[in-house]
Design a protein that fits this description.
The chain folds into three domains: 62 residues, no CATH class; 90 residues, no CATH class; 93 residues, no CATH class. It is α+β, with helices and mostly antiparallel strands. Helix 5 crosses helix 6 and helix 7 crosses helix 8. Strands 1, 2, 3, 4, 5 and 6 form a six-stranded mixed beta sheet that branches. Strand 4, helix 7 and strand 5 form a beta-alpha-beta unit. It starts with 14 loop residues before the first helix and ends in a 30-residue tail after the last helix. The longest helix has 23 residues. The structure holds iron/sulfur cluster. The site of iron/sulfur cluster has 15 residues, from helix 2.
Length: 285
């Protein structure tokens, strides 16, 4: 899969940029600067379809304006239909590379068709049981608290502190607390709340609303135990100033062209491995 444009630094910073740069600088250079498109992966296609299905249904809920819409309307047929519609689009995007797409433990099309709708079901079983609602303070009809978009400067005086975030959900608990949430279809819970912290900082800088709780919603399995204290995390430490330090370090690294490869066991599933000089000594650019 080819590089599409001349190398250039992104105009904004996102959590995925921060984590890509931290995990492998060379991967950052290849994907974000040189714009190489990664070889598709079934886990991305399936995971995106789960996200899309829940987003579609939650936006219907939001648009209805009825707190009980979900309880009265969501069902297995709706879930399966929405998953298949979203998954078909993802598979189509793979195009000619579908047969070479990366897969974890053989989990390809058939596996995701079998298990994807169940992940969506886990999310709704959990949401209906816990009784959280979507954040009622999101007043812009074009920006519901489902994939809530933030484009803001963490430091108003610095253009390169600009961050772009799409927050999967902003929930209101029955007790009135706000929670930023990110849906995960992988098996492993992220080891740090940093992603949620970026959302807290971005939301605070953009709107003045301070959400100090966050959780990862691990929907691969039934979610009855979520969020326990293990899943619901305090985000007080992640101020705009704190997150901006990450952003400025990333910016300095890009400016100095410091892109350190991180050769490790994940290289074998890396989507830009064929372009990587560290993995392919014959590939010096
Ligand atoms: S193959 Fe490994 S070192 Fe190379 S870009 Fe990918 S993750 Fe980084």
């Amino acid at each position: 899969m080819e590089s599409l444009t001349e190398p250039s630094a992104p105009e904004y910073t996102s959590y995925s940029q921060l984590t890509t740069y931290a995990e492998c600088g060379e991967k950052y250079r290849l994907t974000r600067m040189n714009k190489h498109v990664e070889m598709p992966a079934w886990w991305n296609a399936g995971g995106s379809a789960v996200h899309d299905a829940t987003e579609t249904i939650d936006k219907w809920w939001w648009d209805s304006g009825e707190p009980d819409w979900l309880a009265n309307n969501v069902n297995d047929e709706m879930i399966t239909d929405q998953f298949i519609i979203a998954f078909d689009k993802e598979v189509e995007k793979m195009g000619e590379h579908k047969d070479e797409a990366r897969a974890s433990r053989g989990q390809k099309h058939e596996w995701w068709m079998e298990h994807g709708p169940g992940m969506v079901r886990h999310y709704y079983d959990w949401l209906l049981a816990i009784g959280w609602k979507l954040w009622s303070g999101a007043t812009d009809p074009d920006n519901p608290p489902v994939e809530y978009m933030i484009d803001t400067k963490l430091d108003p005086s610095t253009e390169d502190s600009r961050v772009l975030c799409y927050i999967d959900r902003i929930f209101e608990t029955p007790g009135g607390s706000l929670v930023v949430a990110d849906l995960k279809t992988g098996a492993r819970k992220p080891s740090s709340p940093l992603q949620l912290g970026v959302y807290r900082a971005g939301l605070l800088a953009a709107t003045g609303v301070d959400v100090t709780l966050g959780c990862y919603l691990m929907c691969r399995k039934p979610m009855a135990d979520q969020p326990t204290t293990e899943y619901l995390m305090g985000l007080d430490n992640y101020s705009p100033t704190h997150i901006n330090k990450y952003v400025q370090n990333l910016r300095r690294g890009i400016e100095a062209e410091v892109f350190m490869p991180n050769r490790n066991s994940f290289c074998k599933t890396c989507g830009v491995r064929q372009y990587c000089w560290a993995a392919n000594p014959q590939c010096f650019l």
